[in-house]
Amino acid sequence: MQSDTVRLLRYALPFKGTLGAALVVALVGAAFEVARPWPTKVIVDYALSGRPFPPWLAELTGSTPSLATRPGLIVAAVLASVFLVICSAAASLATQVIVFGVAQKMVVSLSGQVFSKLQRLSLSFHQRHAVGDLTQRLGGDVFVVQAAICAVGIPAIASLLSLFGMVFLMLRLDAVLALVTLSMVPLLLLALLVFKKPMHKANEQQWRRQGEMMAFINQSLSGVRLIQGYAREAYFERLMAGHALGLGDAYVKSMRIGAGYMQVTTIITALVGATLLGVGSMRVLDGALTLGDLLVFLGYLAMIATPITGIATAIGTATALNSRGRRVLEILDSSEEVSQRKNSVTLQSVRGDVEFAGVSFGYPGNSPDASAGPEPLVFSDISFRARAGQVTAIIGVTGAGKSSMVSLLSRFYDPTSGVIRLDGHDLRDLALKPLRESVAVVSQDPVLFPMTVQENIAFGRPGATRNEIIAAAKTACAHEFIEALPNGYDTKIAERGASLSGGERQRISLARAVLKDAPILILDEPTSSLDAHTEAEIFASLSKRIEGKTAFIISHRLSTIRRADQIVSLENGRIVERGTHDVLVSGQGVYSRLYESQNIAAL
Ligand SMILES: Nc1ncnc2c1ncn2[C@@H]1O[C@H](COP(=O)(O)OP(=O)(O)OP(=O)(O)O)[C@@H](O)[C@H]1O
Ligand SMILES: [Mg+2]
Predict the structure, then answer these.
(1) What's residue 288's pLDDT?
(2) Whose CA is nearest to atom 23 of ligand 1?
(3) Helices (H), 286-413
(4) Distance from the alpha carbon of residue 524 to the mean position of ligand 2, in angstroms
(5) Higher pLDDT, 137 or 318
(6) Which ranges in 121-153 belong to alpha helices (H)?
(7) Is any atom of ligand 1 closer than 6 Å to the C-beta of 550?
(8) Could you tell me the domains of the chain?
(9) Which tens digits make up the pLDDT trace of 549-592?
């Protein structure tokens, strides 16, 4: 078995007691199973042919005279065979029930772990993986542990046990026939060796394609509005057909290989069976074997194929599971690029003194050759300070790196080089959760969850009262339109906020940040979708809320920028100007040009 499957089986460790019990039941079941051909032998050899009873039978029937008669023995043997069948069936049912119960618990625990890991993994991980593919891994591939236990683990062990039992009894009956029967094992192993690699490849391909298709469906459903708007439905249908066809091909290929393997095992079993029948009959003719013994062998032959194919299938299934299991383990093994250091510091109260010292940054994994080479820098050698309570405006052309710069403050990414300090501490030395709790962000494209308006606003402060929520909404000029919604604050927002206008989404997201009341506030073009009048109103009420907080405001609008304590102007990945409105406006730089163009536009 492969190491990944073994690793997944480790998730069974907490249930080892229950699984041990299942194994004992399986062992008892195997014993009943192995005994099944023996009543036939008793009937044929002792009741029908009139041989003298062997000692064990004589002892068994001695105390009950009715058994010593031939009809009595036949009735007893028939009843015994029925009893054996019922007992082995009951044992196998009990094993399955126990094992399924455990497997279900394992799936719950593993999917919980994968989900929480996905929540913690850095943004750069999520950027590399499509949502649909991750959904497939979390929703489908984690069931691999269930399959591993239910289809591979316990059944394989039970098969092995009954195989050992049968081999032991066969060797005692007749070594030659036992060897003929056992010749099946190397033949099946050989078949497995031949089929394993293509089977593994086909399976892997199938799961990969499935993930890709899930990702595609996810993306097209998210973008359905755009697809309809551009009337590109036919194009997407073709793409979808391509995905479905690819998946279908991969599925058929893997089925074909699996079915081929099954047929080869059937042929091997039949060949060995024919040999057994021939050699066995000869040995009965020679008198080396009784007819009853041959019947026991034929009975075992019919039965033995089950555990052997069971083991072989288990190994085959393990191969398939391995490729799915790897998809799950890949998530669990991914390192959290942004993670908390061991001796991290928790600031008792955050003043909000922020300092960028020689900070350069490039998105991880963004280099053309993902495996090597440094990633291209978005900005380099940025140094400036924002004192507690100051408002810093960041300006620069689109793509200059403004959003990237402020995203480092929440430690969504770490700088490639240089240090960002909060109250004198390197951000990387601070505990992650309290750090993020002290930063409130209104991002450029607001994200709303499909919950009520109230829950969306209270997202950063779940315990907030209704009045606090309303006050925050009023600051963001959102109260009026929220009141006008069908259920006011209790209106459920459609997925991704589809039921609201861009400006409404922005104001709810602003209210959320206002309510969070964190010492550091980041506003990334918070009013870009709003008219100038509403914007002015928001900034008027916001200025009271901002007092004492360190604020970073990214904006292209002069009216928003000019009130800042300092303006930082980014160009080509560097700070080209820094100062107050009055200083910069008299200079010859970007800011004075912006000032002139907007003033002219306002005329
Ligand atoms: N998640 C990301 N992964 C890789 N590259 C990114 C990512 N986000 C942004 N970039 C790149 O980094 C550069 C700076 O982007 P950023 O979003 O910081 O610009 P911006 O100044 O905020 O622009 P805008 O005014 O348009 O919002 C761009 O070249 C962009 O392509
Ligand atoms: Mg931006």
Answers:
(1) 87
(2) 399
(3) 291-333, 402-407
(4) 7
(5) 137
(6) 123-128, 131-139, 144-147
(7) no
(8) 3-333 (1.20.1560.10), 350-437+563-603 (3.40.50.300)
(9) 999 999 888 877 888 899 999 988 898 888 888 887 887 777 78
Encoding tokens for residue 48? 């029908």
Q: Is 600 exposed, middle or buried (0-12, 13-18, 19+ CB in 10 A)?
A: exposed
Say what the pLDDT of residue 520 is: 94
| CA 415 to each of CA 366, 372, 394, 442, 523: distance values in angstroms, whole numbers, following the listed order | 14, 18, 18, 21, 20
Amino acid 596 reads E
- Measured between its terminal Cα atoms, the distance across the chain in Å is 77
Q: CA of 483: how far to CAs of 150, 477, 494, 497, in Å?
A: 54, 11, 17, 17
Q: Is the CB of 401 under 6 A from ligand 1?
A: yes
Ligand 2 centre distance from Cα of residue 403 (Å): 4
User: How many CB atoms are located within 10 Å of the residue 444 CB?
Assistant: 16
d(CA 278, CA 292): 16
pLDDT value at residue 490:
92
3-state per-residue secondary structure call for 266-318: HHHHHHHHHHHHHHHHHHHHCCCCCHHHHHHHHHHHHHHHHHHHHHHHHHHHH
The C-alpha atoms of residue 162 and residue 156 are separated, in whole angstroms, by: 10
Residue nearest (by alpha carbon) to ligand 1 atom 30? 399
Give the ligand whose atoms come closest to the C-alpha of residue 572: 1
Tokens of 139: 């929703």
CA 220 → CA 94, 129, 233, 377, distances in Å? 46, 16, 10, 32
H-only helix segments in 408-531: 432-437, 453-457, 466-475, 479-483, 502-516
Which amino acid is present at 171?
Answer: L
* Most informative mutation of 128, 366, 404 for ligand 1 (most atoms within 8 A of CB): 404
What residue owns the CA closest to ligand 1's atom 29? Answer: 399
Question: Rounded distance, CA 544 to CA 564, Å?
Answer: 14
CA pair distance 378, 488, nearest whole angstrom: 42
Q: Which residue has better confidence, 530 or 35?
A: 35
